[in-house]
Amino acid sequence: MNLLERLAIDLPIIQAPMAGTSTPAMAAAVANAGGLGSIGVGSSDAAGARKMIAAVRERLSAPARGSLNVNVFCHAPARPDAAVEAAWVARLAPTFARFGAHPPAALREIYLSFVADDAMLALFVEAKPRVVSFHFGLPPADRVAALRDAGIALLGSATNLADARALVDGGVHAVVAQGYEAGGHRGVFDPDADDDQLGTMALTRILARELPVPVIAAGGIMDGAGIAAALRLGASAAQLGTAFVATSESDADAGYRRALASDAAHHTVMTRAISGRPARCLANRFTAMGAAVAARDVPSYPIAYDAGKALNGAAKAAGESGYGAQWAGQGAPLARAMPAAELVLRLKEELNAAAR
User: Which listed site, 46, 106, 185, 311, has its alpha carbon 20 to 30 Å from 206?
Assistant: First the structure.
């Protein structure tokens, strides 16, 4: 079975999950247009994920055949460090004060990793989305087996060959080759290990040559020409995230959209200050502040994100949008504002033109 058949899609186009930015309306629009629509539930609990899955399905047309990718985070549980967290709160306090606010008195682990979320696993086995995808690693073997036994196709993100091989050995059906250009969180298994920072095209070619499963290229791909290039290098499909941030169905707020359409799109940076893990973001006030902070001084993911979200909320309340998690890849200047279905159609036309 080839990848498109396994994912039940007509086009080699996957809309990236983008927790907090993708929506059921976006995922359904992409699926109805022939691609694989995705939702990210890593920042949700099982009850919230159930509602999101239902919201996608009620919008799907018959030809979409139920295509849906549900993405989860598989990070190691956070490592609390009271001293680091207190120092981080103290560092952020003056910025909170500028907006007439106070930082959280204590920071929490705001997201439960899928490796420990029994309720989410039970939901997936019951609801049987077409695809479940993993970011930050791989869940334990019993969870993978339960998903496979439920007939669910499994994808996993890798940023290097070693992690890709671990995913294949662990039972995924295809690997997402996430290049360093990609927006949002790096899919590294260990955020403190050395990162070879492989670009999308090099990584895709390496994985396509070395792996016995299909490869999905991700990172910096914004149009049909980029998809065609990835397919020529051996990818079976391409995953696009930043390309969908400016669509009508995106949950990106007005400040995020303005930043994406500004000069900041030409200056994306990798930061861990916002969430506690490396992530590529539009250049903004938060990334500028984080540039001077050593990795060891940032609390563990997602504990740091508790402070980051609170700071963004305080800043937005005061009319400042420069402290948001405005994730975007290096292809950000190529973003186009239009409905998601129209974007998929445009990508299809561009891909066909590039293939001629």
Answer: 185
- Map tokens 């907090």 to a residue: 20
Q: What DSSP assignment string belongs to 248-269?
A: TT----HHHHHHHTSGGGG--E
Same domain? For 185 and 38 the reply is yes
Q: The tokens of 132 are what?
A: 């479940």
User: What is the domain range of residue 174?
Assistant: 3-77+113-252+335-355
Question: Please, where are the H alpha helices in the chain?
Answer: 3-7, 24-32, 46-57, 82-98, 118-127, 141-149, 161-170, 200-210, 224-232, 242-245, 254-260, 285-290, 303-317, 340-355
CB 67 within 8 A of CB 37: yes
175 and 306 in a common domain = no
Indicate whether 298 belongs to any domain. Answer: yes
What domain count does the chain have?
2
Q: Does a structural domain hold residue 277? A: yes
Q: CA angle 111-113-115, nearest 5°?
A: 165
The reply to whether 54 falls in a domain is yes
Same domain, 187 and 303: no
Residue 65 is predicted with a pLDDT of 63
Token readout for 217 is 């290229």
Q: Report the distance separating Cα 3 and Cα 264, nearest Å.
A: 36
CATH number for the domain that contains residue 154: 3.20.20.70
Task: Based on the fold, state whether residues 181 and 232 are members of the same structural domain.
Answer: yes
pLDDT tens column, 310-324: 999 999 999 999 999
- Give residue-wise pLDDT tens across range 274-283: 999 999 999 9
302 within 8 A of 78, measured Cβ to Cβ: yes
Q: CA 64, 66, 72 angle in degrees (round to 5)?
A: 120
Phi, psi for 342 (deg, rounded to 5): -65, -40
Do 59 and 138 reside in the same domain of the chain?
Answer: yes
State the chain's mean pLDDT as an integer. Answer: 96
Residue 226 located in a structural domain = yes
Residue with tokens 């059906």, as numbered in its chain: 173
The token duo for 280 is 């590529």
Q: 153-158 and 174-178: which strand pairing?
A: parallel
